[in-house]
């Protein structure tokens, strides 16, 4: 993937729409987040425009008068690119670019651009390229030559300035190659994961809104040095570290890519396999930025992604981070009595968090007394791999065993469990 370095800071105008039922405040907050995304992408916001509207105009997204206003604002600010907070159809994008005489893109393209800049591993790059190509494929046709030659701008960079001029079929071929490549990575990961299952080490994942402090928290808890930055989507690659609990027990904790409102579904699709670690976790640490103006909205956005990756049923421990920056936590504590409040940077609350994690792990494994007939060597072998055998005696009737099992594997041995003990 070739990324073209920008030698200038691109000037951007943001456009948001308030539809019936939207709160104007929420739209403003969404635009502020869009501005943060622009900053992360290395460009400057020079203007903002919002319109109250009943429905999207199929041709231009905005109404006629507003398009004129946007054109004037674009000239006045001499912006390079206009970014819409809502998704544009390929036709709207083309029409707007024609009228405005400059690049028009949407939030999805901007997020994809940031992912393209931040991808480091081979797998991360393949995932982002797949998402970008899926996004661009329906947008290829009819894009003006002059615009496609304006290289190096947000939404036009990334894999293949030249690839974009190739025909559809070659892009589709590339998409299926990337899918195969990603399948191979996933298969390898499953082999590693199955050896982990055999050793019955519990696993947890850090999930949460981008920039909430997930990587900072894994560093604080596991004494590791995962990359941390005050930018959105600093982490794209999943990293797994071992964490030791107060009782000396260990478990595996994974740091994952952050989520955001309106996360492009192309990205969720192509990151699906790296996010399998989340679905297969014994529990999640859902990290929320305690300084966020809208913690409820951010948590909702995270849960929506969890549903999309089929991880909504994994147990979760809610962790509010960055409490060193918050003067009054009383409202949050009242709203979320079950949450743990920490500062990954200053260390507050980490002991409490470790204790809660240890309790969660203990809760999920219990000791059972089992009787297995001598003829059922298969069940015994299974028990060896799925649980932890604490003691075993063999009698004429069979094996008498005490074993530690988690709720997931209990079902396999239910008929052998002796209810007393
Ligand atoms: N003051 C303060 N800052 C924090 C704390 N935890 C993290 N930060 C800062 O918040 C920013 C984001 O931290 P990261 O750990 O990279 O956040 P993340 O959730 O991994 O973000 P992405 O990987 O980009 O989604 C960095 O500038 C951190 O230094 C905290 O407890 N207190
Ligand atoms: Mg991170």
UniProtKB/TrEMBL annotation:
Its cofactor is Mg(2+). GTPase that associates with the 50S ribosomal subunit and may have a role during protein synthesis or ribosome biogenesis. It is found in: Cytoplasm. Its main location: cytoplasm. InterPro entries: G_HFLX_dom (IPR030394), GTP-bd (IPR006073), GTP-bd_M (IPR032305), GTPase_HflX (IPR016496), GTPase_HflX_N (IPR025121), GTPase_HflX_N_sf (IPR042108), P-loop_NTPase (IPR027417). This is GTPase HflX. One of its GO terms (molecular function) is ribosome binding. Belongs to the TRAFAC class OBG-HflX-like GTPase superfamily. HflX GTPase family. SUPFAM superfamilies: P-loop containing nucleoside triphosphate hydrolases (SSF52540). Keywords: Coiled coil, Cytoplasm, GTP-binding, Magnesium, Metal-binding, Nucleotide-binding. PROSITE patterns: G_HFLX. GTP binds at residues 208-215, 233-237, 255-258, 321-324. The keyword Nucleotide-binding applies. PANTHER family: GTP-BINDING PROTEIN 6-RELATED, GTP-BINDING PROTEIN HFLX. It comes from the Bacteria. GO terms for cellular component: cytoplasm. Residues 161-188 form a coiled coil. The gene is hflX. It comes from Acidithrix ferrooxidans. Mg(2+) binds at residues 215, 235. Residues 202-365 form the Hflx-type G domain. Monomer. Associates with the 50S ribosomal subunit.
């Amino acid at each position: 993937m070739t990324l073209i370095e920008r030698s200038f800071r691109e000037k951007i105008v943001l456009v948001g729409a308030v539809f019936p039922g939207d709160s104007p405040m929420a739209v403003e907050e969404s635009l502020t987040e869009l501005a943060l995304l622009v900053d992360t992408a290395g460009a400057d916001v020079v203007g903002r425009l919002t319109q109250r509207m009943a429905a999207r105009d199929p041709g231009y997204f905005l109404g006629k008068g507003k398009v004129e206003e946007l054109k004037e604002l674009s000239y006045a600010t001499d912006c390079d690119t206009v970014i819409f907070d809502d998704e544009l159809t390929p036709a709207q994008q083309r029409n707007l670019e024609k009228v405005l005489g400059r690049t028009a893109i949407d939030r999805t393209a901007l997020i994809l651009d940031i992912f393209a800049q931040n991808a480091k591993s081979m797998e991360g790059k393949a995932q982002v390229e797949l998402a970008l190509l899926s996004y661009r494929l329906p947008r290829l046709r009819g894009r003006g030559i002059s615009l496609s030659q304006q290289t190096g701008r947000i939404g036009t960079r990334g894999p293949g300035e030249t690839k974009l001029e190739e025909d559809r079929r070659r892009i589709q071929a590339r998409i299926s190659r990337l899918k195969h490549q990603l399948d191979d990575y996933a298969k390898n990961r499953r082999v590693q994961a199955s050896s982990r299952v055999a050793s019955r080490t519990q696993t947890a994942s850090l999930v949460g809104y981008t920039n909430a402090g997930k990587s900072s928290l894994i560093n604080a808890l596991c004494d590791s040095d995962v990359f941390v930055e005050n930018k959105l989507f600093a982490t794209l690659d999943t990293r797994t570290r071992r964490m030791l609990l107060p009782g000396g027990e260990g478990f595996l904790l994974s740091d994952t890519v952050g989520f955001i409102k309106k996360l492009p579904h192309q990205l969720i699709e192509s990151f699906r396999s790296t996010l399998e670690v989340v679905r297969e976790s014994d529990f999640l640490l859902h990290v929320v930025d305690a300084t966020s103006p809208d913690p409820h909205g951010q948590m909702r956005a995270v849960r929506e992604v969890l549903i999309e990756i089929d991880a909504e049923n994994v147990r979760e421990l809610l962790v509010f981070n960055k409490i060193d920056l918050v003067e009054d936590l009383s409202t949050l504590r009242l709203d979320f009595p079950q949450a743990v409040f920490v500062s990954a940077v200053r260390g507050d609350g980490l002991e409490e968090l470790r204790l809660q994690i240890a309790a969660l792990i203990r809760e999920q494994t219990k000791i059972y007394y089992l009787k297995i007939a001598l003829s059922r060597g298969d069940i015994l072998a299974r028990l060896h791999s799925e649980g932890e055998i604490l003691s075993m005696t063999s009698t004429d009737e069979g094996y008498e065993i005490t074993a530690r099992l988690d709720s997931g594997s209990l079902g396999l041995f239910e008929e052998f469990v002796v209810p007393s003990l």
